[in-house]
Amino acid sequence: MYKTVVIEYSPKADDMAQKVEEKANKMLQDGYELVTMSITGTAKAILVFKKGLKKSFIFEKKFYINSNFIGGI
Description:
By secondary structure, the protein is an alpha+beta fold. The chain has two helices and three strands, in the order βαββα. Helices cover 47% and strands 29% of the residues.
């Protein structure tokens, strides 16, 4: 199950990052993982969460990204 959340107008990057982090941590407590996000031209953020991601999938994805990054150096 996916859930989309909009973070309202926040033109400063530091403020936006803090709001995204707070929302991601709150949603994690409810069993949702942040899948992707987008910042709009009007300084809003759209966050997409998915409930029930398997930890093995998350680990494999992080490992794949990290190993590609290291291998590309």
